[in-house]
Amino acid sequence: MINRRNFIKSAAGATVSAALINPASAGGFSPFFIRTDSRQQAPRLRFAVVGINHGHIHGMIQAVRNGGGELVSFYAKEPDLAADFYKRYPGVKNVRSEDEILNDESIRLILSSGIPIDRAPLGIRAMQHGKDYLVDKPGIITLEQLEDVKRTIASTGRIYSILYSERFENKATVRAGELVAAGAIGQVVQTIGLGPHQMNIPSRPSWFFDKKYFGGIICDIGSHQFDQFLFFTGSTEAKILSSQVGNVHYKQYPEFEDFGDTTLRGNRGSGYIRVDWFTPDGLKTWGDGRLTILGTEGYMELRKNIDIAGRPGGNHLFLVNNEKTEYVDCKDVELPFGRLFVDDILNRTETAMTQHHCLLATELSLLAQKNATQITTT
Fold first, then answer.
1. What's 17's DSSP letter?
2. What averages of pLDDT result for each successive group of 10 residues across the chain (378 residues)?
3. d(C-alpha 318, C-alpha 212), whole Å
4. Which pTM value belongs to this model?
5. Distant-in-sequence contacts of 2-8, Cβ < 8 A, 24+ apart
6. Which residues pair with 302 in a beta bridge?
7. Which candidate among 141, 265, 307, 364 keeps its CA 20 to 30 Å from the CA of 104?
8. Could you tell me the CA-to-CA distances from 136 to 51, 54, 214, 244, 287 in Å, in that order?
9. What DSSP letter does each residue of 253-317 carry, written as one string?
10. Positive or negative CA dihedral for 348, 233, 259, 171?
């Protein structure tokens, strides 16, 4: 048994040992939270980008580069987006068609943050051409697309991965995973994930306001929360208990949704998820993303992007257990996803995230979206 008086001090200052994060001893946790060196590795894999309709692509590129990926080419059908991308990555070849990338046998991996409706079809084409695929969320926006993706994975043996950045690219969330795996709050009982976002209407393209193109609010920004629920509870299966969506405020966009929430139960815990587009302009970031993890011996609250009490920056973690109430500094936490993901491509392993977990998080979001009760307001 871990000494509760000593674990916080040791976990905050040292690497959590592999024994603490072995799936057999941590209730189904993958060994994702093994610390790794954050320095960019020498190139060991060539990759390309197709579709750059969301700025998340830059975090994806950096993660893969940190893991030893070399960005060699890109394709975007929008000339203005392509021009801006080339300015940011001047040494990368701007090809004339998607086929140039698909048919380049030296490219092992394709990244995309295209319009959400196009992401799964592109991933299928990539896998059919012998390439692995990493896509921004939502990586799949209909249950029909999900079945097509599953069939293609089975027939090709390729990896279809979705970058759930609220977990993989947030240092407080990485530290929370280490602490949970180390027994900081006992067995996780429930997660509460809140994903508020700022509208910033002038910056949004037309497809942003039509859920036909992005799948709906729970499918879109809610997918992060389903990933975190599965990860922190260790659940390998789950059921949606209730869900609702609505367009409460932005009536000028009839095909848009600005609020959604879900309750669900897994085989190792329960969850509540709320997402919305009501972050006020007075907040100094795009959204006060929060995650509460309730355990049998304590709880954690994460303020991912801002501490409205005044601490600077993001990545704030508050820990309460039987020994103390503590603010945990996360600024030096490593983000190992890129290195582990590149390892998985080269070694055909599942250390960054299992394929089952990736697709189950998406499936739950799609089911919650499809079966949601419609909120009506006057």
1. P
2. 36 32 34 44 92 96 97 97 96 97 98 98 98 98 98 98 96 98 98 96 95 97 97 98 97 96 98 97 94 98 93 95 95 95 98 98 98 89
3. 38
4. 0.88
5. 2/182, 2/183, 4/183, 4/297, 4/321, 4/322, 4/323, 5/323, 7/182, 7/183, 7/184, 8/179, 8/184, 8/319, 8/323, 8/324, 8/326, 8/328
6. 291, 317
7. 141
8. 10, 8, 12, 24, 18
9. -TT---EEEEEEEETTEEEEEEEES---TTSSSS---EEEEEETTEEEEEESS--TTS--SS-EE
10. negative
Lookup: tokens for 171: 């240092």
Is there a contact between 188 and 233 (Cβ–Cβ < 8 Å)?
yes
Coil/strand/helix, residue 241: strand
Number of Cβ within a 10 Å radius of residue 356: 12
Q: Could you tell me which of 26, 24, 20 has the C-alpha nearest to residue 7? A: 20
Q: Is the peptide bond before 23 cis (omega within 30 degrees of 0)?
A: no
Q: Phi then psi for 150, rounded to 5 degrees?
A: -60, -45
The answer to whether 124 and 205 have CB atoms below 8 angstroms apart is no
